[in-house]
């Protein structure tokens, strides 16, 4: 340091100058600008390939951020949120809608609003839930998967599952599986003739109709790959209530399988996204949600997931149903009654 009296700085002078804003650290702003923030997302293990291929590169570049995607089951992600309630490390979850309801009841989610995620204002009716606690970014759909070597024309009605010619040839998902629920509602419709939106609460009628259907059952699955293996081999002729994201991928892989959207309509399965209350980098979390609800990202992820976009401005991918009714599911009603339905299913539908 110089000995010139006008240039001699004491520690006291330095503190005064810093407090007055005369001296600004030169390195700190550059360090802050270069700092990459991390966003940890909990989602389904099956989502990891398309998140890594289509979402991560786009988002990380746009926001100078790093995404870590933890793929597991929805209930496992819920447990992580519960255990870390006072110190969350996840910022966003992509979970099944029934599990989202449990997260809402425990106060684990931060509402999605147009102010924080403007694209939420562009979503289809029925895809925003519980005043914005979560939203759907895609709609994989459920219809009937069938073996094209065995059936030369697609099933045109869910009622075809009752035809005696299919004795011992049909597979359905267990009611333990989320994708098992639409069969219950459709069988209620077939039994009562009421619109699905009214019939689904008549569960007694649904189970009565299922008893008529039971002789046609080959098996009830809890593991989807095993069920599709039986379908590919021709042992099963149809999977009633099959997921497009699995059935259409198997067709793409060369299996003699395709999906039918029967005339009574199809069901949109839940692909929910939410921001965790108290999670790190909330502004980045809402930005991620906003991007998944936007046209650009949905246009990228809908085709490889064989799903319908939820943003009204996003194009429907080729091969998706366009002229058939999509039935929503009242997940709050499901949450209230599902345990009893599962018990009854296990009791009455065992094969």
Care to describe what's here?
The chain is α/β, with parallel strands linked by helices and 351 residues long. It has 2 domains: 36-137 and 271-317, D-Maltodextrin-Binding Protein, domain 2, CATH 3.40.190.10; 140-268 and 328-348, D-Maltodextrin-Binding Protein, domain 2, CATH 3.40.190.10. Helix content is 39%, strand content 20%. It contains 13 helices and 15 strands. The strands form 2 sheets. Strands 7, 8, 9, 10, 11, 12, 14 and 15 form an 8-stranded mixed sheet that branches. Strands 1, 2, 3, 4, 5, 6 and 13 form a 7-stranded mixed sheet that branches. Helix 6 (181-192) packs across helix 8. It is globular, with a radius of gyration of 26 Å. Residues 1-33 have low confidence and may be disordered.
């Amino acid at each position: 340091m110089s000995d010139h009296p006008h240039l001699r700085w004491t520690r006291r002078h330095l503190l005064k100058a810093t407090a007055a804003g005369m001296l600004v650290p030169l390195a700190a702003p550059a360090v802050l600008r270069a700092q990459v923030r991390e966003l940890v997302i909990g989602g389904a293990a099956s989502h990891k390939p398309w998140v890594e291929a289509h979402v991560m590169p786009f988002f990380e570049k746009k926001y100078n951020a790093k995404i870590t995607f933890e793929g597991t089951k929805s209930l496992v992600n819920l447990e992580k949120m519960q255990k870390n309630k006072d110190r969350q490390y996840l910022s966003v979850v992509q979970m099944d809608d029934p599990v989202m309801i449990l997260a809402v009841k425990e106060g684990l989610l931060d509402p999605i609003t147009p102010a924080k995620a403007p694209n939420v204002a562009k979503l289809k009716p029925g895809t925003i839930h519980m005043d914005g606690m979560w939203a759907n970014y895609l709609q994989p759909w459920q219809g009937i998967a069938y073996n094209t070597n065995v059936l030369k024309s697609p099933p045109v009605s869910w009622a075809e599952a009752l035809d005696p010619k299919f004795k011992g040839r049909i597979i359905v998902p267990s009611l333990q599986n989320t994708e098992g629920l639409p069969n219950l509602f459709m069988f209620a419709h077939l039994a009562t003739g009421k619109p699905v939106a009214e019939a689904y609460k008549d569960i007694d009628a649904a189970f009565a109709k299922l008893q008529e259907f039971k002789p046609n059952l080959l098996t009830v699955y809890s593991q989807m790959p095993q069920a599709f293996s039986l379908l590919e081999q021709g042992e099963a002729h149809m999977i009633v209530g099959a997921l497009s994201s699995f059935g259409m991928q198997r067709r793409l892989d060369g299996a003699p399988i395709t999906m039918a959207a029967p005339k009574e309509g199809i069901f949109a399965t839940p692909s929910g996204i939410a921001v965790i209350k108290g999670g790190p980098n909330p502004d980045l979390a809402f930005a991620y949600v906003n991007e998944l609800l936007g046209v650009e990202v949905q246009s990228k992820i809908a085709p490889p997931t064989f799903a319908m976009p939820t943003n009204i401005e996003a194009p429907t991918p080729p091969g998706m149903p366009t002229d058939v009714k999509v039935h929503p599911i009242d997940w709050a009603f499901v949450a209230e009654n599902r345990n009893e339905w599962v018990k009854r299913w296990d009791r009455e539908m065992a094969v």
